[in-house]
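Aim 2, interim progress: modelling of the 2-acetamido-2-deoxy-beta-D-glucopyranose-bound target.
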Amino acid sequence: MVRGQSITGAVLAAALPVSAFTYQAANPRSYSAKQFSQEFNDGFSVLKHYGGNGPWSQGVSYGIERDTPTGCAVDQVIMIHRHGERYPDPGPRSDMLTSLDKIYSSNITEFRGGLTFLNTWTSYLSDYCLSGQESFSGAYAGLLSTHTHGTEYRARYRNLWDGKSIVPIFTSGYERVIESARSFGEGFFAYNYSTNAAINIISESETQGANSLTPTCDKDKDQKTCGDLTNLMPQFYVAAARLNSQNPGLDINATDVYNLMQMAAFELNVRPFSDWINAFTLDEWVAYGYTQDLQYYYCSGPGDTNMNAVGAVYVNASLTLLSEGPSSGTIFFNFAHDTNITPIIGLLGHFNPVEDLPLDSIPFPNPWSTGNIVPQSGHFTIERLTCNATTTAPAGVHVRLIVNEAVIPFQTNQSGPGYSCPLDVYMSTLRKDMPDYIKTCDVPKTYPQYLDFWWKYNTTTSLNFQDGPIPCADSTTTI
Ligand SMILES: *[C@@H]1O[C@H](CO)[C@@H](O)[C@H](O)[C@H]1NC(C)=O
Ligand SMILES: *[C@@H]1O[C@H](CO)[C@@H](O)[C@H](O)[C@H]1NC(C)=O
Ligand SMILES: *[C@@H]1O[C@H](CO)[C@@H](O)[C@H](O)[C@H]1NC(C)=O
Ligand SMILES: *[C@@H]1O[C@H](CO)[C@@H](O)[C@H](O)[C@H]1NC(C)=O
Ligand SMILES: *[C@@H]1O[C@H](CO)[C@@H](O)[C@H](O)[C@H]1NC(C)=O
Ligand SMILES: *[C@@H]1O[C@H](CO)[C@@H](O)[C@H](O)[C@H]1NC(C)=O
Ligand SMILES: *[C@@H]1O[C@H](CO)[C@@H](O)[C@H](O)[C@H]1NC(C)=O
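Predicted structure of the complex, ligand included:
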């Protein structure tokens, strides 16, 4: 439980003069210092209620320690990471500006109530070319968080790199995703990034078929719930009425509230503080978050049965890697989008609700909380563990699943150390019901029929750095 000690040390370091800290550090079992915090507070955070639009936060944990269980060693890690925190895409940006314009064109000279901050606030959306790009300033900046995640994974998985091999890093061919992969790679490899990481860009084109980090499913176009969900939420009407009544002359509606909440979540990606967050109540944030949960659930998750087959591309290939073990490679870092991760998570089932999410009420608790699953910089990690015998489990190979650094027990069997699942049980469980991507999604025979870039990658470092300025607005794939 080193984590508890180091937090205590940091708190003491901040509070005490250097000489006192030296004394405390020499005697960590003082009467006043607590090894473990007794606070869990209420567990509420707005960071869990904006779906995939705002900064990363750690996954809600089940009380399972993140560090490798005693007696086990990780011998292979397979991760898929969403791009880092970013500016809004051109479409949502334009909606945000429309709603802002409505507010400013009301000619109110002094904003009041929940909008008082608007008397001094300035927009962060002025530069169109930054639309969709990674953010780079403030505590939640995307290029900072991906870099930080790289350094954390270096600390955690340092033994998986032999210090000399060239290690591929896989990224789908979208500007912000590529930049995230590079930034993570620089965090992980540090001085060795330019020589020992090899960025492999996997095209997002559908002609990649199953050999892709972003497999598509054409059969998927007509989900009725994938449209505009703003009108479903009475909370947005209440918020509009409140802000209008506080500011005579203002005439925003529920759609504007949705756009402004979206703008608030994104503001945190760019700035360390968003006054817009406080313009809305916690109930309104929960409602906003639920609109996002519905979108992911029905459009890119388990509410759309075809999506299990999409998730199967990655899950099936990862089973092959896990069964081959470290002889096929120890480090597999992959970068793509939120909607490429939710089908994988949906197939594995851990967060799936017992019944389809309702459109006329907000369930509580709602396990399919996308602010907890795919915040910006969200990631899903599979660890292959080789373990010695413990009092409860024989020696063997196990698997642990980790979502945003919270260990997720695999439903079928958690009999291994640290609630891990025996590899053979994990494989047979998933192989039994594995949906067929090629059949389900009518993938043409001329396209690749399974994922094999993990075995056939390039070791060239020529794509490790951006050559020249990034393209204006991230609307097109790069390769
Ligand atoms: C497993 O046991 C062996 C023999 O005692 C020991 O050398 C090794 O370090 C152990 N592995 C782990 C991961 O603890
Ligand atoms: C705000 O002022 C502008 C310029 O005077 C005017 O054209 C516009 O109609 C006013 N808007 C409202 C809502 O009064
Ligand atoms: C990694 O970087 C360090 C520091 O620059 C250097 O000493 C070492 O030789 C590098 N390793 C390789 C394989 O290039
Ligand atoms: C809100 O107003 C915009 C026009 O500014 C309109 O397009 C939208 O449909 C309205 N939303 C609602 C819920 O009435
Ligand atoms: C699963 O992966 C293996 C090898 O990685 C491949 O041969 C097989 O075709 C894949 N199956 C499906 C259904 O994708
Ligand atoms: C989990 O798998 C192990 C190894 O196959 C087995 O011994 C154990 O009984 C299983 N536990 C459950 C709850 O199925
Ligand atoms: C490796 O490079 C070749 C030649 O540029 C390219 O055709 C292939 O798609 C690359 N493979 C990967 C996995 O990036």
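The mean pLDDT is 91. The domain at 42-474 is CATH 3.40.50.1240 (Rossmann fold).
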